[in-house]
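Tokens for chain A. Residues wanted.
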């Protein structure tokens, strides 16, 4: 099909014709050379078929013919290229600037976001500790109140670590698995508003792992805020004797008191005899069951912790920066955890034995021994700590430990107290022998008290009734162990050898030489003086 259109003599091919306008012959309107549609004067493209008009049309036609000649571009592609080539250079420059600006904004947002991530918050906290910036590190910690959340305590704690371990040399952080290897999610819920991490802290001669959570503190992306949480679980401190003052990192946290839950559990052996007692008994029973479940969970968490520690040692073994010293420190820490776990399991077994009446002879010693004393510490920051216990008349004891694992600490009588206890026993032996020989009990109240005074007095009364008296002689005495049970209460374990002669008047009734016995004496301080309150002989 051949296209025909009016061409002004002398005009260029491809240029639109003008007619019926007063500008061309006959005043014809311009038409498109490709489709014949009317177009506006000076138009560069046909509004119907998008074909180039005028000079551009000629050049475009030549490009199309050249492309078709070599079997290359399709006409639509040539048209698109023509349109692009027609875009002014300043538009291209503006578009390029806009694209660069958008990319720069995106990169900037990602950089800001990377500095406001959970892992970045933990790294920032540890980095400030490494640099010695305690104020800056403290500002990144989530505080929940209590004795361990103040800045003064934080500084004391870091000071104790610096004194005992030196400055923090290096650290590494990795995500912490929330699913336990042994018990899954049975023991703890997966955190909702925080991200869990494990940090390995490396000091001069020791390294250990701590759990740190990055807690959501508000804000919007990319500048979302996070604070680190250093502790969640309860740390159990067992301390004998009761009443001991307990210091954590040079700060007083309280006194060792008896475990009320255990005391209630041990009282379940006393069955109720009325309705009110039955109601209280049921309450104690429910509390005991709940405490037993909590105790199981605590031991199970400790077992999980030991397993995880062992796995981390295996994972880090041979890695860059992990020295043999670090490995052995980690192994030592895990072994210590295992020991603490074993002690807790053994202690729980003893508690069960006690619940069924075992170990209770009705003595003051049994009551004080069976009722566990100590203190529970909430929100103690996880990691290395130093505990110190003090009590008048006892040697102070300091011990390092890693929270949240528990710690067991016992005080022993100091030298002056030991001398006082032995002097009390010497006086007791003398008055005991004198009363049996002379049948005079007037000296016993000065050295005896409580049930033992009653027993000694009854023994003398029985001898008097029978017309007998006893001459005793202590041929050997060994003090095996002295132990403080509470402030003003102590026990002495002895091995004794006695010569015992029984007389009626001046006549010898019986004689026993070299009688050996093991005894445990309970001594109680009354009005500043020690007295023997109980005696249990094996």
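Reply:
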């Amino acid at each position: 099909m051949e296209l025909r259109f009016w061409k002004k003599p002398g005009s260029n091919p491809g240029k639109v014709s003008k007619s019926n306008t007063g500008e061309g012959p006959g005043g014809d309107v311009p038409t498109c050379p490709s489709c014949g549609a009317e177009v506006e004067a000076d138009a560069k493209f046909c509004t119907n078929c998008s074909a180039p008009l005028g000079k551009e049309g000629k050049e475009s036609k030549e490009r199309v013919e050249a492309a078709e000649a070599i079997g290359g571009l399709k006409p639509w592609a040539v048209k698109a290229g023509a349109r692009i080539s027609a875009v002014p250079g300043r538009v291209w420059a503006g578009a390029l600037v806009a694209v660069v600006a958008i990319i720069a904004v995106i990169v900037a947002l990602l950089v800001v976001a990377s500095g406001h991530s959970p892992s970045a918050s933990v790294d920032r906290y540890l980095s400030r500790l490494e640099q010695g910036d305690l104020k800056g590190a403290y500002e990144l910690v989530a505080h929940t109140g209590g004795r361990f959340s103040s800045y003064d305590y934080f500084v004391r704690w870091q000071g104790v670590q610096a004194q005992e371990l030196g400055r923090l040399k290096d650290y590494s952080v990795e995500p912490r698995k929330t699913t336990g290897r042994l018990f899954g999610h049975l023991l703890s819920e997966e955190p909702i508003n925080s991200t869990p991490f494990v940090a390995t802290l490396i000091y001069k001669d020791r390294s250990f792992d701590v759990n740190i959570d990055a807690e959501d503190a508000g804000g919007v992306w990319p500048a979302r805020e996070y604070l680190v949480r250093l502790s969640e679980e309860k740390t159990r401190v067992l301390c004998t004797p009761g009443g001991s003052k307990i210091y954590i990192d040079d700060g007083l946290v309280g006194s060792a008191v008896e475990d009320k839950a255990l005391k209630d559990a041990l009282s379940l052996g006393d069955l109720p005899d009325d309705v009110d007692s039955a109601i209280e008994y049921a309450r104690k029973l429910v509390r005991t069951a709940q405490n037993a479940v909590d105790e199981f969970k605590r031991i199970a968490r400790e077992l999980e912790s030991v397993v995880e520690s062992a796995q981390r040692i295996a994972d880090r073994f041979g890695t860059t920066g992990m020295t043999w010293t670090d490995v052995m420190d980690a192994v030592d820490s895990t072994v210590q955890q295992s020991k603490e776990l074993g002690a807790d399991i053994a202690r729980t077994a003893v508690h069960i034995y006690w619940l069924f009446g075992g170990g209770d002879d009705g003595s003051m010693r049994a009551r004080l021994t069976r009722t566990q004393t100590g203190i529970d510490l909430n929100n103690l920051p996880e990691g290395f700590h130093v505990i110190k216990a003090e009590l008048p008349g006892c040697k102070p004891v300091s011990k390092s430990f890693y929270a949240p694992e528990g710690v067991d600490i016992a005080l022993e009588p100091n030298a002056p107290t030991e001398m006082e206890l032995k002097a009390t026993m010497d006086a007791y032996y003398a008055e005991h022998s004198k009363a049996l020989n002379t049948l005079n009990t007037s000296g016993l109240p000065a050295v005896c008290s409580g049930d033992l005074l009653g027993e000694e007095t009854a023994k003398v009364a029985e001898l008097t009734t029978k017309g007998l008296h006893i001459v005793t002689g202590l041929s050997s005495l060994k003090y095996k162990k002295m132990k403080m049970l509470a402030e003003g209460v102590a026990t002495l374990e002895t091995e004794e050898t006695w010569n015992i002669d029984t007389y009626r008047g001046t006549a010898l009734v019986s004689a026993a030489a070299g009688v050996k016995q093991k005894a445990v004496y309970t001594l109680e301080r009354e009005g500043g003086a020690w007295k023997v309150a109980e005696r249990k002989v094996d």
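Residues 1-26 have pLDDT under 50 and may be disordered. The chain has four domains: 25-86, 118-229, 235-410, 415-537.
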